[in-house]
Specification:
alpha+beta, 12-stranded mixed beta sheet, about 15% helix, elongated
Length: about 625
């Protein structure tokens, strides 16, 4: 039976010999999970006390003397009471990071039951632990590492409880690395590279955290002896103290020590690496010709086979000469077995290799669209969602896990992210208010916050067009019903038993008329629709209506006009005539008429007196 394998092959030699540039990235965190004080390990690494966690408790392993480094003796565990999902949320500049964890159980809780749980990075499932662990693993613990991109300024490293088991972690290390490392330009930032074997011949595990040997990425290298097949037991080792050129160069900054040793054999050199056949794998080979007896090209030539597929013929001296690093890498797809077989087959001389890396290419899972993450985090704070509900990390991712408790998610229309379609938090004892950021949940269909202790006003942004069911009954919401609710496609509205007031929008009330359900009972200050009382003429939705505002405006206009008229008459006009020292024209006309009358009266009086005088002189004297 034949199987199809697709290998994307690329070859590269490092830069010409030169002095390596200083490592340009300085962001790193070494967190002693469960640790209470800062510490420095034997290799001069500084460790922070436990920080950036969302919940959980601290503990110490049952046999502290079994561990030689402080950060391996303490741990943080997340009991079921802290919720099914808990995280470390570490603020980081956007970029690519090397992330390493130490996980240990060592019967810290005295229950002799190693826990089952999953771990995710940036919303993508990367590690799974299932009970019972192998005995040596439970007692000694294990290091795991990967490379991942952080795009939003915060690393979310999260744990998800299986059944009621509490996840555990002993330490968490984060080191910023070159974003172009490990062919990211070709593989894109849509993959997380999970270490399935980073091998160096001969020597025991070395690198930061295990020896004083430097590696700017923080990588550690383990002996290849456990991965060589029985046919390769006769392999022998070559070492040198000579300087190896082409090491420590961007973007991968491989350490010189890696190329100062090699393994060789007279015959086939074969490795078997455990893999998950559902994934693709990025494999890197490291070579250096450190055998001084090889003087020219063609003296050591061998083929590299993967699962019996010849992917390259290698002549190290021909490619880079002696004492120089040479690298090839390829991607293997469509695997059909849980074992990846790597074989070096001699053509001329004996094959030789200095290092081997094997990374599972885990596709980055869908994540919640950024604006809805903002909205959900705001709601978590405003609603005071309790820790037991596990509202940590990405609301919807990983898709293998259940979303935040009470939250339902779906892929968006263009298939690029996840959106929230339902929030069901009825009878959860919530105390708080609804954040204005809820307006960012543009795909929300069902919102149920009934029977809690929520208060405050209903936000103006509540009433997305997608909203079909709204139940806020049995709370303490106050204020008016926002007009924005009339723009949604509501089929059910329950706002009963709150402290709402003002006029009910007619469009909202029509939900019941068109076959939907609406319940506004228990709000004594609502008005405007049957069976509620009529609203005051000039009062609407807890404030002046439009008509009331117009009436007040007209009244104010008339009042001001009258005041201005009075001021004009009694102040401005009177003041003007007073200063002219003259009578108004109408008063002057009246005075003229009066003067003419007085003159006529005087003339008549004089004429009568004259006639009277004449009469007296013509009469005879009266004798006595």
């Amino acid at each position: 039976m034949s199987f199809l394998f697709l290998f994307l092959l690329s070859f590269s030699s490092l830069l010409p010999p030169s002095s390596p540039l200083p490592f340009p990235y300085n962001t790193s965190f070494h967190i002693d999970c469960g640790g209470l004080t800062p510490s420095t390990d034997p290799y001069n690494f500084s460790w922070l006390p436990d920080n950036f966690f969302t919940g959980g408790s601290t503990a110490v392993v049952s046999e502290p003397l079994h561990f030689h480094i402080q950060h391996e003796k303490t741990l943080r565990y997340f009991p079921f009471s802290a919720g099914k999902k808990n995280c470390y949320n570490i603020p980081l500049p956007p970029g690519r990071y090397f992330i390493r964890t130490f996980t240990v159980y060592d019967n810290y809780d005295g229950k002799s039951h190693s826990p089952s749980f999953d771990a995710s990075v940036e919303g993508t499932l990367v590690f799974s632990w299932r009970s019972p662990w192998p005995e040596n693993l439970a007692r000694d613990g294990a290091y795991s590492d990967l490379f991942a991109f952080v795009k939003d300024g915060q690393l979310d490293f999260c744990f998800y409880s299986i059944a009621t088991d509490p996840p555990v972690i002993g330490s968490l290390e984060v080191v910023q690395i070159d974003p172009l490392s490990y062919n990211s330009a070709e593989t894109s930032d849509n993959f997380i590279l999970v270490n399935y074997g980073r091998l160096s011949p001969g020597s025991p595990q070395w690198g930061p955290g295990f020896t004083s040997d430097p590696d700017p990425f923080g990588r550690s290298w383990q002996s290849d002896s456990d991965y060589r097949t029985a046919n390769s037991e006769s392999a022998r080792f070559i070492t040198t103290k000579e300087k190896i050129t082409g090491t420590g160069q961007a973007p991968n900054y491989f350490p010189m020590k890696l190329y100062q040793s090699a393994v060789t054999i007279d015959g086939d050199l074969e490795y078997e690496l455990a893999v998950d056949a559902k994934l693709d794998y990025l494999v890197w080979f490291h070579f250096a010709e450190i055998d001084s007896t090889v003087k020219k090209a063609g003296e050591r030539v061998f083929d590299v086979l993967v699962n019996e597929k010849n992917v390259s013929r290698v002549d190290i001296y021909k490619e880079v000469g002696s004492f120089a690093a040479y690298i090839l890498n390829y991607t293997a797809k469509n695997l059909s077995s849980s074992v990846l077989n790597v074989k070096l087959v001699p053509v001329v001389g004996a094959p030789s290799i200095s290092g081997l890396e094997n990374y599972a290419m885990v596709p980055a899972d869908f994540s919640t669209v950024p604006e809805q993450v903002i909205a959900m985090r705001a709601l978590k704070d405003s609603l005071r969602v309790p820790d037991r509900m596990g509202w940590n990390g990405d609301p919807c991712a990983p898709t293998d896990w259940v979303a935040w408790e009470g939250v339902t998610c779906h892929a968006n229309k263009n298939g690029t992210g996840l959106v929230i379609t339902q929030i069901d938090l009825g009878s959860q004892g919530l105390k708080g208010y609804i954040s204005d950021q809820i307006s960012l949940l543009s795909n929300l269909i069902n919102l149920n916050l009934s029977t809690n202790y929520l208060e405050g006003t209903l936000p103006i942004g509540l009433g997305q067009k997608s909203l079909a069911r709204l139940d806020l009954s049995n709370n303490q919401f106050s204020g008016s019903i926002p007009e924005s609710l009339t723009s949604s496609n509501l089929q059910l509205v329950r706002l009963s038993n709150n402290l709402l007031e003002g006029q009910v929008p007619e469009e909202l009330y029509s939900v019941g008329v068109h076959g939907g359900t609406i319940d506004l009972s228990g709000n004594k200050d609502l008005c405007g629709v049957p069976p509620l009382p009529d609203c005051p003429l000039f009062w609407e939705n807890g404030r002046l209506s439009k008509g009331g505002k117009i009436a007040i405006g007209i009244s104010c206009f008339l009042f001001v006009s009258v005041v201005l008229l009075v001021v004009y008459i009694f102040c401005i006009r009177r003041g003007k005539n007073d200063y002219d020292f003259g009578l108004p024209s109408d008063l002057m006309s009246l005075a003229a008429k009066r003067n003419r009358y007085q003159r006529q009266k005087s003339l008549m009086h004089l004429e009568m007196e004259s006639q009277h005088a004449k009469g007296l002189s013509s009469r005879p004297l009266n004798p006595h």
